[in-house]
Amino acid sequence: MSGPMSGFGTVLARDLRLAFRRPGEMANPLLFFVLITAIFPLGLSPEPELLRTVAPGILWGAALLSSLLALDLLFKNDYEDGSLEQLVLSGHSLPVLVLAKTLAHWVVSGLPLVLAAPLLASALYLPAHAWDTLMLGLLIGTPTLSLLGAVGAALTTGLGTGSALLSLLVLPLATPILIFGARGVDLAVQGLDPVGPMYLLGAILFLAVSLLPLAIATAVRISLD
Amino acid sequence: MQAEGLELWRGDRCLFRDLSFELPEEKALHVSGPNGCGKTSLLRVLCGLSEPEEGAVRWRGKSIRRDREDYHQAFAWLGHLNGFKAELSARENLAFSVSLRRKTDDEVRNNTLDQVGLTAAADLPCRVLSAGQKRRLSLATIMLSAARLWILDEPFTNLDSKGREMISELLNSHCASGGAAIVAAHQELGVEQPYLQHLKMEDAV
Hints:
The complex is a heterodimer of chains A (about 220) and B (about 200). Chain A has about 220 residues and is mainly α. Chain A has one domain. Helix content of chain A is about 80%, strand content about 0%. By secondary structure, chain B is α/β, with parallel strands linked by helices. Chain B has helices at about 40-45, 70-75, 90-100, 105-115, 130-145, 160-175, and strands spanning about 1-10, 15-20, 30, 55-60, 60-65, 75-80, 150-155, 180-185, 195-200. Chain B has a 5-stranded parallel sheet, with helices on both faces. Chain B is globular. The two termini of chain B are about 25 Å apart. The interface of A and B includes residues 14, 18, 86 and 89 of A.
């Protein structure tokens, strides 16, 4: 088989096609994201001052939870119908294949959050000059969340009831992303330069893309044993 | 292909111990034995999906753990599960499974679908196919895989008598063209005598 990235496009295309055949599953994380951010003003107070202060934390916390929500199914469907075995035995590099699966998952569950963020930000009175920092942070932060979550999903796939365990495994690892992401938006709201937290998010993403596929591949092999 | 002194435990049950065999090319190995004796587990060890407690599996003299991707390209695996997506049509599933291994054009795939008798059902989503039809579709993937070694776990399940005959014919022509196969099955494979090799497994202790 040619090239180290062979099989990447095939798996990516299949997973995206599958996702579009199941639009309900696709809409779930986005719906969850909208709901969480929408209930905070009801519970707190509709005061613009207050909402503006808490908006970065709410938006990032909601994004974190919603991207974890869909992760449970990342490998479970493939595990149950036997196509995970076939992927492992396909003769391609497994880290590359799981990276393709995770990317497809992010396009379906993470990217919509990035695109919907300005809308929700405006609902929380977040000033417009902080929107680009919010979107950029989510754009480089949510892929890391998907990769981290994929490790947990691969580990818990072989177990019957994994979803609670999955969140428990992944949430502590995901907190740095939440902290830097929300901090960046905070800085931008105050008119300060948010470039520091953004660089850190970028660095974490590079680290995750280069190392986590190996961990995910190993976890997949373990769940199939 | 060689297996040397394989030993596998599941919990506190020993499924097999000191199991060795050699499978030359142009041979089909018929693995038989009672339910629960570890046929599937053995096949998963031979694929490299499970690690044996003891022993090693060698392919062309090299341990399969040494060059995993190279070995995986050499064989095609058919497990209990077919590995098809319920939302995709038979045609799409076949195209995906085959394209992971090699390039084929539509015509070749359509011919194979015709051969396994699925032309009429090719555009239906796999969700509505019967168990036997899905089994036929996985045979089509195996046929198109161009693999030297076939590892098939109960390929006869759910198939009608015509389908079972088809498997026998496929195995015969695969062996005749220099391929090898390992098949776990409760019934006779229908493979011609010179190609056939047996492995009887005992109950687990």
